[in-house]
Amino acid sequence: MGQALSAQALQNIRSGNVIGELTLFRQKLDDDDVVRLAEALDHPDCRVTELYIRENDVSDVGISAIARTLVSPNCNITVLSVSDNRITDNGASFLAATLSNEHCKLTHLYMDGNQITDVGAAAFASSLVDSQCQLMVLSLWGNQITQVGVSALATALASPQCSLAWLNIANNKAGPDVQQHINQLCEGRQAHVSPYSPRTPSQTLTALSSPMVMNKLVDPIKASLHFIRHTRNTIKSSSHLFTEVSAIAMQTMSLVAQHSQAIVSVTNSADLDLRTKTDAEMKNAAALKRTDEEFEKEKREYEALKKQMEIKERNMNELSRTSIVLNVSLQTIRHDVEVAQQKSDKYHKLQQETEELVTEIGALVEQAQLQEDAWRMKISKSGLDEWDSNDFQELMVMLNLKSWHNPLVQQRLTPALLLLARPSDILHIPDGEGNTMSFGQASLLLLTLKLISTTHDLPALTPSHDPNLSPENAATWTVDNVEAFFRSRNLPQVASALQKGRVSGLVLVHMNDDSDLDRLGITQPADRICCRDVLAEVKRHVKANKLSAKVLGVYC
């Protein structure tokens, strides 16, 4: 922040404590400072009417902020000095555009010593002929305006709509006689307008240093000096010391002549040194030119190398992204390989267990086949349903399953009923020590019974004397008919479970074995085996009844 533009100073400007003139000469203000200053000047309570910010570090950015403030209804600025800053044609165009705004009150504008060219001059010329423009004094001294820009301004001054009374265009690039021509164009409007803003006594000396004021004060100053010399000579001629003064004057003149010769000698020596230095500087300039050419060449090589580095960097980034994708893919492949390896190990383990189980079953089957003939001779004398407990126990001893004999009998699983069983029906039955059969042992028991049996020991379903309980009409049974049918088959627990589950005949013929039995709570192995067998028989009767109906329908 500039030296004089603190937060407290901005607050004083906003609150109206600064009245009239605000001078910020050589305060090292930059664009940020000017932007904050413009915001303070736009406050409704601000009472500043003259703003002087010359010889700072303000560019087009800061000037654009000032320009926006000038067109605000709250702004009261009539005099603006931004001389000796870094303002170009862009900043000049911003200020020129504000002059034609109805809210702009600016009458004096000083932009000396900036970087304004013919473009900025043309922008001012365009705004000066606008009827809204109130500007009366414009100073563009010491810029870079050529004859083109001066012609545009002269054309604007010649317009009757132009209100400008003073225009300072000296010390530009348009020739020495341009200012005189501009003064002639403004002559008719200068009667009641001063080229300087009203100032306090402390500013009078600064105002007198302006080139326009100095040009007008040269003749009076020369006349005053002539009068002073004339008066001094008169006094000397009337003095009695005139002779002595003359002698002293002669001596002085002699000394002046001597000093003049010394000065000429020194001047010649200085001129020789200057020429020598000039030659050296010309040689240095040539060497510097060659250095500049080499620098430009190196700069071009550097730019080419920089482009190559950018291309390599893009390629490296692409390779990096590709590497990341490959790493992710590799990790996915490794994970898949690990999963596949685990599945393979599990499969090999399962295959090994299956082979061991097959070997065990094969050995047991082979052992059972050794006793097949003897058991067939024994079973031919009586059916399995006529076996007593000793016959069944003898079979269990032979198969090395003696510990499961009593548990099976307790579950009402007779040899005849086991012919209808599956290995899963007896796997969960524990022996006296809490051990359960393996799948191979259960399969061996059931397979042995099937090998030595020649007939199915359970009697087939016979038609019931009650037509409502006939298996052929099972699809039409009610819940009570289903219960009555299973009680007639000596399965009271199954009948109660079906009654509780509200199973009708239509539901019965569509039941799927074990899953539906589990949902109905039929868990006893004997009940499950008998229920499954009865269901199969009922479905066969229903299917046969449907087939007969179709045949009769064809021939009728």
Question: If you had to describe this structure to a student in words, what would you say it looks like?
Answer:
Helices cover 62% and strands 4% of the residues. The chain is mainly alpha-helical and 556 residues long. The chain has a six-stranded parallel sheet with strand order 1-2-3-4-5-6. The relative contact order is 0.03.
Instruction: Assign a percent range to the helix content.
Output: 55-70%
- The separation of the N and C termini measures 115 Å
Mean pLDDT: 76
Strand neighbour order, sheet with most strands: 1-2-3-4-5-6
For the largest beta-sheet, the strand count, sense and barrel status come to: 6 strands, parallel
Structural class: mainly alpha
Radius of gyration: 62 Å
Total helices: the number is 21
Q: What shape does the CA trace take? A: elongated
Order of helix and strand elements from N to C terminus: HEHEHEHEHEHEHHHHHHHHHHHHHHH
Task: Report low-confidence residues grouped into runs of 5 or more.
Answer: 196-220, 455-463, 551-556
Number of strands: 6
How large a portion of the residues is in β-strands, by DSSP E? under 5%
